[in-house]
Amino acid sequence: MPTGRPLAPRIAGDAVRSLLAALFPSDCRLCHAPLFTLSRLPVCNSCLASIQPLTVPRCTLCGDLLQGEEARHGDACCPECAIELPTFARAVSFGAYTGALRQLIHLLKYERVQVAARLLGHLAAQAALQLEGDIDAESLLLVPVPVHKIRLRSRGFNQAELIARHAQREMAQNMGRTLELETTSLLRVRFADSQIAFSAAERREQIRGAFKVASRSRVKGRDILLVDDVLTTGATAGECARELLHAGAARVWVVTPARALGHQAELVDPIREGLVQGFDTAGESRQSSVSSGSIRSTSSTETGGQAEGARLQ
User: Fold this and answer.
1) Domains assigned to the chain
2) Do strands 294-297 and 288-291 pair parallel, antiparallel, or not at all (unpaired)?
């Protein structure tokens, strides 16, 4: 017989949540549609279902989309990485930094809805599955990209650290390795304004010297998973990796929930049957697998179109 929570308390809990939602209605923070279920994450199922994994040919190093001849042959190295290899070994991401995924990250960073970090952590953990076969180290150091103390005081938290904390357990289980969270060895020592309007070259110039390794002994000889919310040009991740390698790290891998794409391409093979399938209502991950950049859930309880498993009750 199936195991799980007793049916009666589960029905009672659903009834209470529905009643509270009816008495205190709210809107989705992304699309402003009414929310009909009570959830700690104020995002509707339709918005969650629209978050799709990247399934198009990408650079095997930086994760950007490929064009032209490179795309015809599947995953390969992009022209930029062919000219100059990145300092990190490889960067992987779950989805494109557009639509609901972009809004979800903004919800965390700028509107301070910290519960969004749980779902973003799950997406980061799913992205890390793409590194299976690349990493041979038995244990890894999980390092979130640090923020400057000025930014930390104004925002109140480091979004990369929240994402890393929520991703740690699922990453360790999925990868079958020990992951140790390290939040003090890599520091941001120089403050810089937003880099949104800068080119890739300008970003690399601005970020140079912005990070410092405070404890070389902690990173020496270690394989490191560097976690951030979004990878844009790779300048920040590249500078962090450069400092970590200079301090003696063996290799640096980059994992983010989102990837800003350098050029436009149509996303194919949309996952509409519960995109964030591995995330159940208790905030715990069920077994999922990533194949060729897409997610397939092993749960039989998902229903199409509504990403029911993604709700954070």
Assistant:
1) 41-56+87-269 (3.40.50)
2) antiparallel
